[in-house]
UniProtKB/TrEMBL annotation, chains A, B:
UniProt xrefs under Pfam families: LacI, Peripla_BP_3
Molecular functions (GO terms): DNA-binding transcription factor activity; transcription cis-regulatory region binding
Cited Gene3D superfamilies: 3.40.50.2300, lambda repressor-like DNA-binding domains
Domain HTH lacI-type: 24-78
Key word DNA-binding present: yes
This protein's name: LacI family DNA-binding transcriptional regulator
Bias kind Pro residues: ranges: 1-13
InterPro entries documented for this protein: HTH_LacI, LacI/GalR-like_sensor, Lambda_DNA-bd_dom_sf, Peripla_BP_I
PROSITE patterns from the UniProt entry: HTH_LACI_1 (PS00356), HTH_LACI_2 (PS50932)
Entry keywords, A to Z: DNA-binding, Transcription, Transcription regulation
Region: Disordered, residue numbers: 1-21
Length: 354, 354
DNA sequence: CTGTTAGCGCGTTCAT
DNA sequence: ATGAACGCGCTAACAG
């Protein structure tokens, strides 16, 4: 049986949703200014494209009403959220701070905001990624690279600008701003060997990236053809649990000396670890750098100012952050990005410990 | 003249907007599952309220299509963004890291995400606040309190849950999870005076909050009725520019000794500064703690493991973050929050430097 | 330069 | 337990 179409007057239309309490909308502003909502929108977003008159009236109405833009609605309509998500293994560590800081600064001045999520060191959890992508960010910055082929696949099919950082890989998901851990390991090994060190050690985290660094360091140090000055006789590797801190560094040196008593140089994957190694050496009366050379990583703010001053590998994380932000913004605004892979390099800052 | 209504067939209707390329919507999922969009929505958000059959079909369709929720649209419709914004004076400093970490963790497990913005130490910039509020966060967490009455006003009229942290004030904007810098200053002063110190010094940042701490410390230390053990003879105050780091601490001690050569105790507003003071003292052959006592702030991860181990004020920032997150979430879900102000207290961790 | 129309993708509200 | 209709607040696309 066909349903009788209800008479218009009798139509049981659902009661309109209650308006938000204090919510001033762009319509309210437009009404007060005596213009169309669209003109109000333009006055706020592309002021160059409206007349002085309208611009002024809208601005006045905004001031009077205390209007605050609803970016959610704008994002839905324009398909651009002006949000960028950063996925960082560990927010608390000092390592990625400058990166985050640079990201926030560069994005902020371009009108974008940062969603910060913590990914852990292992495989990127699927539900975290979903939660992040659900916000429809205009771009994704990863502190690190995506290890699994599956994760790469997912990110690529997400169809948004992605910048991996903090590493160099042959096949990035999309864009890449980083440096080569292998090169660094090689350079540090060469530096130490040239200094006459033969019993080397490496201290780093337990996660995959740190393990890769360890391997690079070992093979560079033992490589008989690497340098004219010779090569290492032995390289001990110690892993420490995250977060890498001073305590871990102290413990690691203790273990290294137990296993390889004549160790004369240690390369640490973080300045905090290096400070720990130095401290433990001091506690044991080991002279630095005479008996033991120590090289850190990161050139954290304290590295230059502790005693002895830390020799370390310096990375320009601020440049990484700024470049990553620029890449994301360029792509989000539809402009092409010239270089899709950037190696920001590194430098060894020679101070007192090596 | 009245406009002729165009014949329906001739109506020049604008071409519908192009659909997003890869955008799978909930409708697509529903269609594939053979249910209404509404049922698909329920299957994802309140699975308890749909039949097993529908639930399964929807889940299958989601898996097949690779559907990713559009939280923007959801937020617009439901008026709940599941976003929480954190405003931090300085992202790069180590001070607020544990707080941010705890926030991300607690919010994440409740299904919320974090927008991180950097506010600087001064007055909260109006356009930053607008940008943040434009995302319609379900709550705001401030690292610090709002100094200006005007800022308080704005936040209150924004009508969202606000948690201030890291301080205690008489009239918070809304909720407050912090500790009393005055109490800490008093406790440290008492501690040092009881230890026989009489020529005190304070090292802190240049911003208003640090200045308040300095004043509290000075008045507590000089207060003749404060402790049975006596009171300080003099208190020097040194300000350092942000960010407070080891270098600043070293320089500050140098200036203090120039002005007040017999200084026998220094209270630093950050462990990094304290490490700098200790380092500079060592460089000058000043024995710690015999000639100079040093107290830091924060109990950062290295404090216990450097030599000498830092005596410091410990704050449970993880608890602050977790509590703040809980408050926001409770309020966002419409549940009342029992206590609106929480003092998490502090403790003085006595190690080797005082 | 300005206004009109339509719809972004979802959840609320009501009805069944 | 399920579905239909509507609109959250804004901007793209077009017409003038």
């Amino acid at each position: 049986m066909k349903k009788t179409p209800p008479a218009p007057a009798a139509a049981p239309r659902p009661r309109p949703r209650a308006r938000a309490e204090g919510g001033v909308t762009l319509q309210d502003v437009a009404r007060l200014a005596g213009v169309s909502p669209m003109s109000a929108s333009r006055a706020l977003n592309t002021p160059a494209r409206v007349s002085q008159d309208i611009l002024q009236r809208v601005q006045e109405a905004v001031a009077r009403t205390g209007y605050v833009r609803n970016s959610l609605a704008g994002a839905l309509a324009s398909r651009r959220s002006r949000l960028v998500a950063a996925l960082v293994p560990n927010v608390a560590g000092p390592v990625f701070q400058d990166l985050i800081q640079a990201l926030i600064a560069a994005l902020g001045s371009a009108g974008y905001q940062l969603i910060l999520a913590q990914s852990g060191y292992g495989v990127l959890p699927d539900d975290l990624l979903n939660a992040v992508l659900g916000q429809r960010p205009d771009g994704l910055v990863l502190a690190g690279v995506v290890p699994s082929a599956q994760g790469r696949q997912r990110l690529q099919s997400a169809g948004l600008p992605v910048v991996e950082t903090w590493d160099m890989v042959a096949e990035p998901v999309d864009m890449l701003v980083g440096f080569s851990h292998e090169q660094i390991a090689g350079a540090v090994a060469t530096h130490l060997i040239a200094d006459g060190r033969r019993q080397l050690a490496f201290v780093g985290g337990e996660h995959a990236r740190a393990q890769r660094r360890a391997r690079s360091f070992v093979s560079a140090a033992l490589d008989k053809r690497r340098t004219a000055r010779g090569h290492a006789d032995a390289v001990a590797v110690e892993s420490v649990p995250a977060p890498a801190d001073v305590r871990s560094g102290r413990d690691a040196l203790a273990r290294i000396l137990a296993r390889q008593p004549k160790t004369d140089a240690v390369f640490c994957s973080s300045d905090l670890l290096a400070l720990g190694v130095v401290t433990e050496a001091q506690a044991r009366g080991i002279r630095i750098p005479e008996q033991l050379a120590v090289v850190g990583f990161g050139d954290l703010s304290f590295a230059a100012d502790v005693l002895p001053a830390l020799t370390t590998v310096r990375i320009d994380s601020a440049a990484i952050g700024a470049t990553a932000a620029r890449f994301i913004v360029e792509r989000a605004e539809g402009r092409p990005v010239a270089a899709t892979t950037v190696d920001v390099g590194f430098s060894i800052v020679t101070r007192d410990t090596a």
